[in-house]
């Protein structure tokens, strides 16, 4: 019995130490999560505004002439996978990399932005042509290297399509792996300009009131690369917000499980200890009866 109680005490101490670690990681992830979520949500109105400007520009320029809008037969595809550098974030990377496995390895080149994606693509023997490292709180200048690489590959004709695979942030408990076509740029959605109290015709009329200098075609040519840069930046922000949210939830779940396991082991320890005391009392009583 004594050996059993020692083992239980040792397990309780070990689990308490683990719970302290997971609790600390939960607090760190929670602080990072709030900042990452704020950054991801703050960028969405700007993205919508760029889209509204492009909707207006395309009404005054021949969008078929711009090379970034050229739709070609897809013989080669570039897939950018945005993952995390660290683990301990639940099934976030597992779900994302499962989607990466669905791409045709014979017709796709891969770009990794994150250590987990890089390790997975090498392990699966995919054609990894570039690997980008990003800071924990990336700025637009940090993600421009990825978007410039994608633009150069598309304009040179080496690839006919660029797809970005990332985890879209929905809320703290829900993150969705998403594959989005980056190039060629898809047609912009005119109804996004419509407000709740403004008819579609009025929205279209307001779009036609813009004046462009020097010309709509040149404005479009200047905005489209910036649009690509910002889209990659926004996807990275979503991926970071998803990472810290998933890690905070995973560490909270681990801490709760550790606390429950400590309770169960403490109850088992008390039962074993009580049984040991009862056995000793019975032995004493039996000895006294034998001595008469």
Give the key terms:
single chain, Pyruvate Kinase, Chain: A, domain 1, 5-stranded mixed beta sheet, 5 strands, 6 helices, elongated, 292 residues, alpha/beta
What's the gist of this structure?
By secondary structure, this protein is of the alpha/beta class. It has helices at 2-58, 92-100, 115-123, 140-155, 200-207, 216-291; strands spanning 77-82, 108-113, 128-132, 161-171, 174-183.
Number of H/I helices: 6
Main sheet makeup: 5 strands, mixed
Helix content: 55-70%
CATH architecture descriptor of the domain at 45-248:
3-Layer(aba) Sandwich
CATH homolog superfamily of the domain at 45-248: ATP synthase, F1 complex, gamma subunit
Mean pLDDT: 85
Instruction: Give the N-terminus to C-terminus distance in angstroms.
Output: 29 Å
Runs in which pLDDT lies below 50 for 5 or more consecutive residues are: 189-207
């Amino acid at each position: 019995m004594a050996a059993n109680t020692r083992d239980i005490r040792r397990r309780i101490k070990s689990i308490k130490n683990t719970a302290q670690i997971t609790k600390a990681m939960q607090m760190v992830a929670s602080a990072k999560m709030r900042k990452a979520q704020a950054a991801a949500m703050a960028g969405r109105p700007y993205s919508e505004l760029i889209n509204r400007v492009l909707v207006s520009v395309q009404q005054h320029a021949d969008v078929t002439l711009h090379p970034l809008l050229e739709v070609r037969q897809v013989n080669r595809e570039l897939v950018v996978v945005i993952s995390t550098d660290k683990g301990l974030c639940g099934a976030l990377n597992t779900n994302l990399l499962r989607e990466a496995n669905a791409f045709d390895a014979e017709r796709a080149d891969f770009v990794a932005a994150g250590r987990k994606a890089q390790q997975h693509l090498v392990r699966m023997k995919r054609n990894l042509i570039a690997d980008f490292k990003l800071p924990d709180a990336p700025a637009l200048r940090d993600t421009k290297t990825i978007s410039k690489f994608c633009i150069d590959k598309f304009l040179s004709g080496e690839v006919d399509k660029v797809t970005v695979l990332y985890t879209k942030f929905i809320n703290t408990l829900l993150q969705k792996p998403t594959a989005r076509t980056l190039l060629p740029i898809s047609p912009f959605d005119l109804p996004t300009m419509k407000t709740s109290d403004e008819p579609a015709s009025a929205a279209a009329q307001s779009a036609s009131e813009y004046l462009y200098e020097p010309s709509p075609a040149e404005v479009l040519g200047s905005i489209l690369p910036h649009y690509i840069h910002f889209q990659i930046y926004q996807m990275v922000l979503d991926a970071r917000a998803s990472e810290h949210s998933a890690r905070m939830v995973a560490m909270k779940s681990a801490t709760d499980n550790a606390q429950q396991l400590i309770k169960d082991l403490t109850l088992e320890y008390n039962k074993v200890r009580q049984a040991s005391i009862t056995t000793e009392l019975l032995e004493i009583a039996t000895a006294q009866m034998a001595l008469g």
